[in-house]
Design a protein that fits this description.
186 residues, alpha/beta, DHBP synthase, nine-stranded mixed sheet, 30% helix
């Protein structure tokens, strides 16, 4: 399940220009953009018809790319979290004070994941950092699991769609509170 160098180079250019892209993840197609670009995040939220107050997830190919957005927990908690990555586990960690509200919404935490999906990880590597990652569907509707469903389930098409198969997960990734381990979404 590889994505060509040319497609990844194109995706990087689209992201750098403030674009929104769709790509396969562990369970569903995701919508992503540069997390530091407020206008790109606004466009992504409009495509999804999602309220900014809900907050978003960031994915990366390595923990180091997520580190600027969060405050790590104690070594024992971080070891527990690190043992699940890369993989289909999203963790809520305290947001760094400089993390924009367009990412955290009304929360003091930020949802982060080191992805194991080869296309999503390659995309993050090509971008050179973390990406916003939210399901490619309008809020409250079933998530897209194919490129065709992405085209049908959004208010408008993303700027770029990276083709590929989603991973084998039957449901979107588990979200746990990093401070307690408590499941927030199963």
């Amino acid at each position: 399940m590889s994505t060509s160098f040319a497609r990844l180079r194109r995706a990087r250019a689209v992201l750098a220009a403030g674009g929104v892209i769709a790509y396969p993840t562990e369970a569903v197609y995701g919508l992503g953009c540069n997390p530091d670009d407020a206008e790109a995040v606004r466009r992504l939220l409009a495509l999804k018809r999602r309220d900014v107050r809900k907050g978003l997830i960031l994915i990366a190919a390595q923990w180091a790319a997520l580190r600027p957005y969060v405050v790590p927990l104690d070594a024992a908690r971080m070891a527990t979290i690190a043992a699940t990555w890369p993989g289909p586990y999203t963790w809520l960690l305290p947001a760094h004070p400089r993390t924009p509200r367009w990412l955290t919404g009304e929360h003091e935490t930020l949802a982060v994941r080191v992805t194991a999906h080869p296309v999503a990880a390659a995309l993050c590597d090509a971008w050179g950092g973390a990406l916003v990652s939210t399901s490619a569907n309008q809020a409250g509707r079933p998530p897209a699991r194919t490129a065709l469903q992405v085209r049908r389930r959004l208010a408008a098409p993303p700027d770029l769609l990276l083709p590929g198969a989603c991973g084998g997960a039957a449901r979107p990734t588990v979200i746990r509170d990093g401070r307690t381990g408590r499941a927030v979404r199963l």
